[in-house]
Amino acid sequence: MDILKKRILQDGKCYEGGILKVDSFINHQMDPMLMHKIAQEFVTRFKNERINKIVTIEASGIAPAIMVGYLMQLPVVFVKKKQPKTMENMLTTTVHSFTKDRDYTVCISNNFLTPEDHVLFIDDFLAYGNAALGMIDLINKSGATLSGMGFIIEKAFQDGGKILREKDVHVESLAIIDDLSNCEIKIR
Predict the structure, then answer these.
(1) Is 155 annotated for ligand binding?
(2) If exposure means fewest CB atoms within 10 Å of the residue's CB, which of 88, 123, 167, 176 is most exposed?
């Protein structure tokens, strides 16, 4: 994913505290051509896994997840951060947001995450792994099977990838950031 790495270096912005902003092309304003290439790469990397459903968490994971679902011709479900009054058979867990430094109770309907599902989780960032661990909790509660987790950008210095790999999760990250010290972006 040289094109992604080039875009991160060209348009990404670094802030103190290990924050990498990619809102001009991934998670606020989106580059659909880049998102299509990202989705193609995920499809290639997970082609040997049994998958019948794509799952993400709102909001920044929705665009890449929909593109992956489109290419794989699979349904896409997103975990919600606000509990709708009309949701049936709700499963919940708590997720801590690194960027916003707050806890969220997230939910998904067990109607759309079932024991028959083999799930590919797609998200924009992997930092400390909080959203991913919350997703694993929801998958376990539903009885579904986790087939893999794909992230556009992994911040390796924040250990989320290490934690997931130690749990034997098939993790694929398209760009791995090794360091953001002194606001210098160092990509593996």
Answers:
(1) yes
(2) 88
